[in-house]
Amino acid sequence: MTEISKIIRGRWSPREYDPDFSISCEEMNQILEAARWAPSAMNTQEWWFVPGIRGDKNYEVLRRAVAGFSDWALDASGLILNIHQEYPSRHGLDFGPYDLGSAVQNMLLQAEVMGLHMRPFATFDRELVSQVFQIAPPYVSFTMCTVGKAPAGLTKERERKPLEQLLWENHQA
């Protein structure tokens, strides 16, 4: 059996970031560029991002929006708001969240290749970001991501369920 890529196996989501690290505009753009290459239903690519780098106006708004269980995000060098458009297909399914998830996964893997870390989260003030960035239906402020470097020496062994537990035939309700 082929081994899983070291990038996939090694990727992890820190709950702590180095407050002294600064991501560059070029690095942020490279991460966002990775999203362009994600698959989407009917190639619609119905996703958008509001990136913020520490010190710019987008970052300040996004940082103010961090809420709830996500206060660990406040030291990240960059924040990205992830937006999708609700678009039910002719089958009645909304592929927006699924497609956005593919784009975000591409960004997560690109950050890992670059020696950075990203962590998606969902606890933030959607009203605030919708108002400031003028996001209204059918557009949805779905998640945010942190981007930066974990503090030196901070690593974590990832725990994953065994493959057998992910197969429906083995699922116990």
Give a count of the beta strands, DSSP E runs of length 2 or more.
4
The radius of gyration is: 17 Å
User: How many alpha or pi helices?
Assistant: 6
Mean of all residue-level pLDDT scores: 91
Shape: globular
SSE succession:
HHEHEHEHEH
Helix/strand-derived class?
A: alpha+beta
Strand order of the largest sheet: 1-2-4-3
Distance between the termini: 30 Å
Biggest sheet overview: 4 strands, antiparallel
Stretches where pLDDT is under 50 for at least 5 consecutive residues are none
In helices, the fraction of residues equals 25-40%
Strand composition percent:
15-25%
Protein name: Nitroreductase
Domain Nitroreductase: 8-50, 84-149
GO molecular function: oxidoreductase activity
Keywords: Oxidoreductase
What is the topological layout?
Layout: H1 6-10, H2 25-36, E1 47-53, H3 57-65, E2 78-85, H4 96-113, E3 117-121, H5 126-132, E4 139-148, H6 163-166
Antiparallel strand pairs: 1-2, 2-4, 3-4
Helix pairs in contact: 2-4, 3-5
